[in-house]
Amino acid sequence: MGEDTRPLLGVPKIRIVRTVHKFLRKFRKKNHCVYKASTLKKCVVAIILLSIVLIIIYSQYIGHSPSYLTGFIQRSTRPEPNIRCGVMNGPRIPQNHDHKTEARLRSYPKVLVFVETMYSKLGRDIAELLVHTRIKYKVEVAGKSLPVLTNLDKGRYGVIVFENFNKYLQMDKWNRELLDKYCREYYVGMIGFITPEEETYVGSQLKGFPLFIHTNLKLKDAALNAASQILRLTRAGETAWGDLPGNDWTVFQANHSTYEPLEWAHRNDDYQPTESNVRTPLPTVIQDHGLFDNIQRVIFGSGLKFWLHRLLFLDSLSYLSHGQLSLSLDRMFLVDIDDIFVGEVGTRLRPEDVKALIATQARIQAMIPRFKFNLGFSGKYFHHGNREEDKGDDLILENIDKFMWFSHMWNHQQPHLYDNLTVLMDDMMLNKNFAKMKGIPVDSGYSVAPHHSGVYPVHELLYTAWKKVWNIRVTSTEEYPHLRPARLRRGFIHKNIMVLPRQTCGLFTHTMLIDKYPGGREKLDESIQGGELFQTIINIFMTHMSNYGNDRLGLYTFESVIKFIQCWTNIKLSSAPPLQLAETYFKFYPGESDPVWGNPCDDSRHQKIWSKNKSCDSLPKFLVIGPQKTGTTALYTFLSLHPAIATHYYFEKSATYFDGELVPKRVHALLPHAKLITILISPAKRAYSWYQHTKAHGDVIANNYSFHQVITASDTAPKPLRDLRNRCLNPGKYAQHLERWLTFFSPQSLHIIDGEELKSNPVEVMNEMQKFLKITPFFNYTDHLRFDPKKGFYCQVISGDHTKCLGRSKGRQYPPMEEKSLKLLQRYYLSHNTALVKLMKRIGIRNIPNWLKDDLSDSST
Ligand code: A3P
């Protein structure tokens, strides 16, 4: 109730007072007023007070706010889409630049970014844009030695980017030659940014190139070279009028036909142009066709602060990677309007808002065929507005067919608060019955949970009820993996329900008036004109009913951004119902289907929308990650003997974690503070133990082929044989797997056990382990482990003289490995073992295991 009176008591009151004053002043002048000024003033004050009281009573208690009055007040601030675009309806230059050439097969679709430091601003902007567009990249600090550039006969990187092009120009001879050679041999292009320096250069030559620069300029009015082959996503023709951000732009002057401008701008300072150069545009981004030194480049005279450069950067990546790093020009988008019928009195849609919604939708349809706003409803609050707003509700329903529809909960309740499936389903049924009664379609297969609850973190009951009541196939959330940063939002599939990422564009329930937009109108316009909204246009956008009443910010935002996209890009926007959208999405990003579960207790927002019955106390504190056949079962058994671990320390052992490609990422998402324990033995012995293990399990291949035949099987061998070979050999590439873990976890959280020591001196190993895990009180394993000569291993002391050993499958009896296989494997693992020694030294392990030393020295004999 409080909210709906605010506009009338606040700003408008002053406006009404001024209007009355003005009117009376005019009246006095014209009629040579007969009243005394003081009487008149009192009258005016009385009239004003009376009108205010009447308005309050009228709107608060009668609840029928006079629409012409509020309409008048709000219209005075309401923004109208006003995108200046000279080429909007002009002919489109046919875009057939897919940039694809055969050369793309020479390298992988990944970008190598050389930054000045790990924290430099432009470097971070570049990385953010790459994350946003899901382009793979690797960051290296310039000036250090070059990373490995090739992988067998293929280049590891399709484009090289220098945050500071100077770092490339000043590279030491050796590395520079290496890098240039790589670029030439693998047809890899380069992007460089001229970063500002204090000293201003005028006509200064770029070291070694027929290219001259003038730095530290203020510029305005940027335009593009329509003939450039680089333009693909970006559409030329329009000028970005006005000042360009920053006063440290660099412009180029070339002395060679290899250079072609991509972008121009004009000077914008107290510089006095002469007759001859008054209109000369200055190249601000320049393409090097590679005619000079056989390397193609694009050089930017300023960073990514200027929004157009973000588009040009993406196009340059596409061009220089020969079409490998090209984003699709087809983008789908959908605008959800949540909370239909839910808003507070005074903020809801009135008939003229509904008409505006329909009119805007028709205008958008002219640009995006089949576009329809997607309306989310909670039936319980139907007709809960004032009289005008109730008419608005009716008008929406009269136009049901013009929109798409989806269900929220009947009472807009958070699903995670339900612990009973029947109650949750009953609630959903109420909304479904409401929909049926009103003729709202119920077959969209899409639903959105109020307050983002229950979708992620997952509330299983919600998924079950959605399936049963509504046959839901698609939903969307802004919470996966986290609300922020928005560019990292992704989709996933759970219980056969596709969850799409949702973007908010700053239009929340309370964002109703342009002045109240977080950061002000400028911020919204920035977001539309090349900013975040413009960049995230492949998405479901979430807005709310109240964004379409009041200042109608929803309409303003989307009409503007669509026009802007049409003006400046060749993106083909289309819209589709959620189900189709989701299918396209997961076809595009199949890698996202499987969710990476995070820990709700590490995110306060997630905790708030997580069932009270769940707790984080039952998550493991440490993991024994394997690999298989190194003694993981023995370690697990010994750990479980410790009374403190048995009672408080949840831990988990899974020997297959070690070499799983995605496991470190997943573990880190769920248990970022977990400690990790790995056991290593000679990889050759490990391979043999695995072979014996599969053989003992009756595996046909292991029984039909000798160990030597298995490990020497070629890539043309039958698949089951290759599979066994791989399971024998791959986990033993220890350094490779550990590096993957170490990209997510610090060396301090990793404990490496020498598996041979675990066999020969488990007490010492367990003592070290207690220290690493910081477990108290100290448990004396000497009393609990004893060597059992019969088993040939240490076993648990149970009572008096008795021991309990691991089962027959652990510590098997089998003939020793053939010498030729051992030699072969020691050679095979030579590079991996060498890398392991390096890795161990790097993370501070001083005692290199004897088996590792032996394997390395034996491999040379
Ligand atoms: P073998 O059976 O080839 O000798 P995992 O439990 O990871 O599968 O590893 C099994 C291996 O653990 C056994 O391989 C054995 O060498 C080793 N191991 C280490 N300590 C052991 C113990 N106390 N009892 C039995 N096996 C042990």
Give the proportion of residues in helices.
Answer: 25-40%
Any low-confidence stretches, pLDDT <50, length ≥5? 1-35, 54-75
What class, by secondary structure content? alpha/beta
Shape: globular
How far the N terminus sits from the C terminus, by CA atoms, comes to 87 Å
Radius of gyration from CA coordinates: 34 Å
Mean pLDDT: 88
The largest sheet, given as strand count, sense and whether it forms a barrel, is: 9 strands, mixed
- As an assembly, this protein is single chain
Strand order of the largest sheet: 2-1-5-6-14-13-12-9-10
What is this structure's SSE topology?
Elements: H1 2-9, H2 11-31, H3 37-62, H4 67-75, E1 111-115, H5 121-132, E2 137-141, E3 150-151, E4 154-155, E5 159-162, H6 165-169, H7 173-185, E6 189-193, E7 204-205, E8 211-217, E9 219-224, E10 240-243, E11 249-254, E12 259-267, E13 282-288, E14 297-300, H8 307-320, E15 330-340, H9 351-367, E16 374-377, H10 387-398, E17 404-407, H11 421-438, H12 460-470, E18 474-477, E19 492-494, E20 497-503, H13 520-528, H14 532-535, E21 539-544, H15 553-568, E22 572-574, H16 578-588, H17 604-608, E23 622-626, H18 632-641, H19 643-648, E24 651-653, H20 663-670, E25 675-680, H21 683-696, H22 700-704, H23 707-711, H24 719-729, H25 734-742, E26 750-754, H26 755-760, H27 762-773, E27 785-788, E28 793-797, E29 803-804, H28 819-828, H29 830-842, H30 850-858
Parallel strand pairs: 1-2, 1-5, 5-6, 6-14, 15-16, 15-21, 15-22, 16-17, 18-20, 20-21, 23-24, 23-25, 25-26
Antiparallel strand pairs: 3-4, 7-8, 8-11, 9-10, 9-12, 12-13, 13-14, 19-20, 27-28, 28-29
The structure holds adenosine-3'-5'-diphosphate (A3P).
GO molecular function: deacetylase activity; heparan sulfate N-sulfotransferase activity; hydrolase activity
InterPro entries: Heparan_SO4_deacetylase_dom (IPR021930), HSNSD_N (IPR056793), NST/OST (IPR037359), P-loop_NTPase (IPR027417), Sulfotransferase_dom (IPR000863)
Subcellular location: Golgi apparatus membrane
